[in-house]
Amino acid sequence: MTAKAPAADLMEKKKKPLGAGQIILIVSMLLFVLICTLPFINVLAISLSSKSAILRGAVSFWPVEYTPRAYEVIVQDPSMFRSLFFTVKITVIYTVLAMILTILYAFPLTMKRLKGRRFFMLFIVFTMYFSGGTIPIYLNVKELGLINNQWSLILPGLISTFNIIILKNFYQGIPYELNEAAYIDGATDFQILWRIYLPLSFSSMATLSLFYAVGKWNSFSDALYYITSRDLQPLQLKLYNLIKGGQSVEVAVMEGNANDLASSISQSIESATIIFATVPILVVYPFVQRYFVQGVTLGAVKG
Fold first, then answer.
1. pLDDT tens for residues 35-91?
2. What's the CA gap between 159 and 147, in Å, rounded?
3. 0.85 surpassed by pTM
4. How far apart are CA 168 and CA 121, in angstroms?
5. Which residue spans of the chain are classified as CATH 1.10.3720.10?
6. Burial 270-293, CB ≥16 within 10 A → b, else e
7. Distant-in-sequence, close-in-space partners of 204: CB < 8 Å, separation ≥ 6
8. Is 209 exposed, middle or buried, given 0-12, 13-18 or 19+ CB atoms closer than 10 A?
9. C-alpha angle with apex 174: 171 to 178, nearest 5 degrees?
10. Span 259-297, pLDDT tens digits
11. Which helix (H) or strand (E) holds 44?
């Protein structure tokens, strides 16, 4: 009898109806999910609809007069894939270099034996509130000869003060006795970082890498300022120019005039390009999503 009682109580708890607060919470979450997903579904539907259906305003959340013509244009456009591969390249380089600099700045700030670490912390926090502005940064990039160079999309803004603070606070959550014990045993600072701190901070590094990668993938303003060559246009700048009408989609082999075709189905091409630019980062996100909440919360415990 005593063994069955807990099981019966557990079954009764499972059958307990949802309260009003839980129902409100579930409905609110469903509404939030719909608000986030419906615009994306609408863009997907437009990309698969015909020109006449788009002009009639008949497309909502399901393709009308289904046609994959917009995606055929994108697939046959070599410049689109060139921009995609170039964007992946600069995103990977930027993320790797940004994480290296973030780690090398955050780790020393946790060392109690580092003289002036409070000054270095104030020095980088100062940049969160004050900046030289767009024009001085552009002039600096120009003087360095980085205009129309891929490094103009990587070096400026390579390090984030916010991410340094998150990683520093995470490192401070690691018992400092581990650091002192390794130091007494003769380990160097780089050995302490490599063998103690990095293995224990994988979740935070995955989260910050996602921050850096998504930020670089979605950015186009830096390319808008520094890049005029069509061969160095990242995907987001190409999408920006397409939507703004700054350039037509390049078509390799299509019937009739390429520019006429691009303008005749421009809205569907814009939507298809948005999907084309969004899917790669959506594919990457699930692999680091499980580290996301853990990494941010662990880095936000201490001030």
1. 888 888 888 888 888 777 777 777 788 888 888 887 877 877 788 888 888 999 999
2. 20
3. no
4. 10
5. 74-298
6. bbbbbbbbbeebeeeeeebeebee
7. 166, 167, 170, 291, 295, 296, 298, 299
8. buried
9. 115
10. 444 444 467 777 888 888 888 877 777 776 666 655 555
11. helix 20-47
d(CA 276, CA 202): 30
State how far the Cα of 185 lies from the Cα of 109, in Å rounded to an integer: 22
User: And the tokens for 260?
Assistant: 């006429």
Cβ-based burial of 200 (10 A; exposed 0-12, middle 13-18, buried ≥19):
middle
Question: What would the pLDDT profile of 165-215 be if each residue is shown by its tens digit?
Answer: 888 888 888 888 887 888 888 888 888 888 888 888 888 888 888 889 888
**DSSP string over 55-101:** HHT--SSS-SS---HHHHHHHT-HHHHHHHHHHHHHHHHHHHHHHHH
How far is the C-alpha of 174 from the C-alpha of 193, rounded, in Å?
A: 12
Q: Which SS3 state, helix, strand or coil, does residue 113 take?
A: coil
125, 161 contact by CB (below 8 A)? yes
* Residue whose C-alpha is closest to residue 150's, from 102, 95, 93, 101: 93
* 74-298 has CATH 1.10.3720.10 classification: yes
Tokens standing for residue 229 = 């060559």
Calpha distance 220→119 (Å, rounded): 34
Dist. CA 213–CA 93, nearest whole Å: 10
